[in-house]
Known about the structure:
The protein is α/β, with parallel strands linked by helices. The chain has a single domain (about 20-145), classed as 2-Layer Sandwich (Transcription Regulator spoIIAA), CATH 3.30.750.24. The chain is about 40% helix and about 30% strand. The chain has four helices and six strands, in the order βββαβαβαβα. It has a six-stranded mixed sheet with strand order 1-2-3-4-5-6, sandwiched between helices. A hairpin with a 4-residue loop joins β2 (about 25-30) and β3. It starts with 19 loop residues before the first strand and ends with a helix.
Amino acid sequence: MPGSGTTRLYRPDPTSAEAAKQCGAAVFAVHRRNPLRTEITVTGDIDAANGRALGHYVERHTGTNTQLLLDLRAVDFFGSQGFTALFYISVHCSRSDVDWILLGSPPVRRLLSICDPEGELPLAADFETAIARLNQQARRRLRAAFAG
């Protein structure tokens, strides 16, 4: 008789909370900074070989948190599939009620200036600004929870 157990869907495995994943020419790593916030850092190149994997990696690791800081400051190349991944992440976060913010390297910022000229994606200028915006969103959620 086959064993029974729990299958994890869209929830991070607690045993891999700090696990890094090599995917093509990039490395994805997740860090739990506090009970509400997840930080995902990406180093290397985001291209057609790993853009979709980035979206799925973020989706897997945001199931239990209400905030995401996506740090792409160490990305050396950012192709159009990277933008597709960011759009996917944006939709996922919206549907999952996750506040998120993005930090980008010059290649990321360059592509966003072309593909997102209206600034719809939540790009922050620096780490301190990103944390301040996430903290502000957390305070708004808290006020809304007490008011409603």
